[in-house]
């Protein structure tokens, strides 16, 4: 997706957000947060926290878990590894209760990447080399 297309996508989500209600609003907030994790983590955090709040109000536990997962990613990007791991542990607990193997795998992957950042803070190149080394074993 080109740079112009990316902004068009974000713009279309913002337009959708203006009229979205209920779970559609939660899904749109989450999509925006996920889209902005790397490029605008502070704005992504705002959207994700709002999605978590609305999910909690609606007793939509899966929505809360998705928002917490996104927050974990945001805190990882911002270098707040302890917070990232805290959110990941909460989400992992929910995913295990639900028996959601895909979500469990996603959370564990994020936790490993977060721990690798703590142990090997020299950036993605070393992280990628470590992942490749682990895969070869």
Please give a structural write-up:
This protein is mainly alpha-helical and 137 residues long. The chain contains seven helices and no strands.
Give a brief description.
This protein has 137 residues and is an all-alpha fold.
The oligomerization state is single chain
- Output the helix-strand order: HHHHHHH
**What is the percentage of strand-forming residues?**
under 5%
Global mean pLDDT = 86
How many H/I helical runs? 7
Radius of gyration: 16 Å
User: Could you describe the largest sheet, including whether it forms a barrel?
Assistant: none
User: Residue ranges: pLDDT <50 for 5 or more in a row?
Assistant: none
Rounded to the nearest angstrom, the distance between the terminal CA atoms is 34 Å
Helix content: over 70%
SS elements, strand count: 0
